[in-house]
Amino acid sequence: MKRIYTSFIILFSVFCSLSAQDKKVMSRYQDQLVDLFEQVYNAPTDNERYHANESAVQLLSKALEEEDSFKWRWNFGSRVSVLTASSGKFRIFSWPVRRDNNEQECFGFVQAYDEEEDEWVVTELHDRSDEVFSPEESMLTADSWYGSVYQELVETKHDGQYYYTLLGWNCTNPLIQRKVIEPIWFKRDRAVPQFGQPLFRKAPNRRRVILAYTTTAMVNLHYEDQVIHTVEKKRVKIPGTNKSTTQDVGHDEVERMIIFDEVAPQVQGMEGLFQYYVPTGVELAYVFRNGKWEMRKGAQGRLSDKKLNKAFEPLDKDPSRFNLSN
Predict the structure, then answer these.
(1) Which one of 3, 59, 79, 300 is most buried, counting C-beta atoms within 10 A?
(2) pLDDT at 172
(3) How many Cβ atoms are within 10 Å of 318's Cβ, its own excluded?
(4) Rounded distance, CA 220 to CA 226, Å?
């Protein structure tokens, strides 16, 4: 973990213009990093990809030490996901490196503002997703990160407190991939990230949601305005009579939600063998209520045709098709 000292930082003005000299310095870093990440994706062997990645990690770490680096709007095209909290609290970088056996290892950094120390802190993330015991219930740190490539950063607020939830993709196994709903948080006014938080109502031990399924399937995961269809039993009058009866009455509501596909084994008896899990055709959702994510059934993703992370799941496993800029 490296600390970057600044003075008199106003958190919400971090995106003000860089000086001409700063722009020149950061542009040079970006050009070099773009070249390195192209090698990370396109080099033909493990050794070459990991060698390029090691250089990229070192150079990006150095770039983030620059005093005004948080003001720079990074653009790595389809190679690296860069998500920034609108509150100005932090930014997270994440990307995968492909191995010859089609496993992926993830790498990343978090750059966050420490209000107490009045400094920016850069923390490198270390993928330990294949070592985490009970991953849905574990609180993890940067050194025990459930490595994922994050495509969305969901920001919610309750009682004046911000809550941050990451939506991402993980593929440490050539037969199984995962979608991840991952809360990220910081101890009050500090900058070292913590991963996993008990924000899921009626599931007090759950700190993240992991959807595991076969690499030949596609599972949608997105945060957007969508439809919740609910059915209630109501007493209604029978036309032409003085009698009434109980009927199921449905109605639709549009809400902001994390909507995703339910997954299950293709055939009975395969429970727990995630290489046989596929979408069931049922959509589920989490809606943020009073500081918690609340599960809602009856979600219907019919207000858009977005298919999140399509390019994270190339059936031919060609990493050049990964697209993080949707």
Answers:
(1) 79
(2) 81
(3) 11
(4) 13
| Cα gap 197→128, rounded to integer Å | 18
268 CA to centre of own chain: 31
Phi-psi region of 323 (alpha: psi -120 to 50; beta: other; left: phi over 0): beta
Separation of alpha carbons 238 and 5, rounded Å: 73
Please give the structure tokens belonging to residue 291.
């500081």
Query: Residue 316 phi/psi, 5° resolution?
Result: -90, 5
DSSP 238: P
The pLDDT > 90 percentage for the chain reads: 67
Burial 163-174 (b: 16+ CB within 10 A, else e): bbbbbbbbbbbe
226: which strand partners?
255
Question: Do 163 and 113 contact (CB within 8 A), yes or no?
Answer: no
Q: Where are the alpha helices (DSSP H) in the chain?
A: 20-42, 46-64
| Cβ neighbour number for residue 187 with a 10 Å cutoff | 10
Residue 95's contacts (CB-CB under 8 Å, 6 or more residues apart) are 37, 40, 76, 79, 80, 81, 106, 107, 108, 149, 324
Helix (H) / strand (E) containing 262: strand 244-265
How many residues belong to the chain?
A: 326
Q: CA-CA distances (angstroms) from residue 195 to 87, 141, 289?
A: 18, 6, 21
d(CA 37, CA 81): 12
pTM: 0.84
Give the strand order in the sheet containing 221-237: 292-296, 277-289, 244-265, 221-237, 299-300
Average pLDDT over every residue of 191-199:
96
